[in-house]
Description:
This protein is an alpha+beta fold. Helix content is 40%, strand content 25%. The longest helix has 47 residues, at 160-206.
Amino acid sequence: MTDKQIPPQSQDSLQDEVRRLRRAVEELSILNDIARAISASLNAEEIMQTLIRKSIRAVNAEQGVITLVEEEQKSMKTLIRTMVSSAGAPAFHMHQALIGWMHLNKKPLSVEDPVNDARFRGVQWDSNIKTLLCVPMIVKSELRGVLTVYNKKDGQPFNTEDQRLLAIISAQSAQVVENARLIEEEKLYIKMQQEVGLAAKIQMDLLPRSNPGLQGYDIFARTIAAQSIGGDYFDFISKSDGRMALCLGDVSGKGLPASLLMANLQATLRGQTLVSQQPSECLLRSNKLLFESTSPEKFATLFYGVLDTKLHCMHYSNAGHDWPILIGKNNSIQRLKTGGLMLGLIQQAEYEDEEIPIQLGDVLVIQSDGVSEAMNSNNQQFSEERLQALILEHKERTAEEIIDTVVKEVRKHAGAHPQSDDITIMVIKRIE
């Protein structure tokens, strides 16, 4: 039978079948190209660029975009937005309403007239967006991304074949994109950990490498950060007249931001110690510098004392810090309160200072609030009263042993409860 003998209806059916077969071959070729391309890379950005270029070509669109999302406190947060445009096409902006719709419905979405679509009333679309097609990228029943193409080049709306093909591409590639993204997140996390480790080393290098060996005195200090890096600070600064400045501070916050403020505070105090004669003068100048160089929510508490080993006295000023505990040989207890407000809180803060004698056998303990406020699983604090009694009980021990005992008892009190704040302690004993 010749073509002329085939009935017209049969000819139409054969032509439709040929078109379907040709389309199926094209789709398989596209999917094969995508599979080869994305298997050759672990870079999420490269994989998404490849997917978008192939998708644009497959459905003859002007532009495409992949938006990766994650569920955060029941809201959608855009993580990555990768866009590819054909030559000369303006960059379109994917509206958050599309992501919200996709999060709720998790199925393909075709919009033929965005401005008048009842599903998106009130949405301000880019004027050049005529039609669009969105498909979800689902991983383990969760929406992890949205693949969107805009405007067919022939001016027609996207059809069911376009929607089916784009859905297949999305379904086949969602897990690959997610895996690549997770690998990149892991690399970024490792890099951040390395940077935090380096910051922690730099911070420890800023602290004194050894305790001062002053004749007639036993001095020891230790800091234990709640995180990899902390915001507590202590220092021993030799003055030109032979006296030594002893500092212990606690900056607001934790982690890297606190450590940066701590480094700023240390540099400020070291500079001011060299030019200021009185502790109150040193804190006054340091406060102004800190106020001018930090944001309003940043501040620091600080105990600053100058020890004179010849006259056996300490001249000090306390900038809103936990009151140090001075225990005399006869078990008398004095708290060092004289001073003023925290550093960096207000620009025109005023500070007072006081001079106290250091008698033979006296023990001075300077601590951060991470000691007395250490919590256990019942939300009970270690307390200043307990700290005071502990020092009184062990005052005959060396400065290092007193610190070891305090840290041991604080950890025993906390038990399994994680350390919530930095712990820093300095002990000064006059031994002869």
